[in-house]
Design the sequence.
């Protein structure tokens, strides 16, 4: 192989690696993602600070839920956008809270049911005391089918990590 061919091959590899690069968090890590992903930035995981999560496309849901007395407006990101940026191959999410509670959520809930990972409630960054820093929320008021124990159990709060799995459907 000639020098020019080797140089072009090396350049091609370097350019393709930069497409899959994920910046390192510059603030406190609030979410780690692992499992069936191709892009990582810390020890085989993808670590995110709040600034990185706010850079993802944002979605808004206004809804009542069993944990609050009135309707609130939630803003956050979709698992679809987050995982697409990581080269996700999984279709099931194991979502774990700060207290180690874990629930499983099909990735399809974010595309078909409109669920989001909320980081803000009524325009205010969610604190741990207020079910944050991240909470899975569904648009309960726009789809009566979502008002069930199945979706309430998937509405995990104080989310700290996501593991993507590949399961047969």
Sequence:
């Amino acid at each position: 192989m000639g020098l020019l061919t080797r140089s072009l091959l090396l350049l091609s590899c370097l350019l393709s690696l930069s497409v899959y690069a994920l910046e390192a968090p510059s603030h406190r890590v609030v979410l780690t993602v692992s499992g069936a992903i191709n892009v990582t930035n810390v020890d085989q995981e993808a670590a995110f600070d709040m600034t990185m999560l706010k850079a993802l496309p944002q979605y808004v849901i206004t809804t009542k839920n069993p944990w609050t007395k009135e309707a609130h407006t939630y803003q956050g990101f979709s698992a679809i956008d987050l995982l697409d940026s990581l080269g996700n191959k999984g279709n099931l999410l194991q979502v774990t809270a700060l207290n180690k509670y874990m629930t499983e959520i099909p990735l399809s809930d974010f595309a078909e049911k409109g669920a989001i990972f909320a980081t803000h409630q009524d325009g205010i960054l969610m604190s741990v005391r207020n079910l944050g820093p991240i909470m899975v929320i569904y648009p309960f008021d726009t789809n009566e089918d979502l008002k069930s124990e199945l979706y309430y159990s998937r509405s995990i709060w104080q989310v700290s990590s996501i593991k993507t799995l590949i399961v047969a459907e």
Observations:
- Helices lie at 3-19, 50-54, 79-84, 108-112, 149-154.
- Confidence is low (pLDDT under 50) at residues 4-19.
- The domain at 25-165 is CATH 3.90.420.10 (Sulfite Oxidase; Chain A, domain 2).
- The first helix runs from residue 3 to 19.
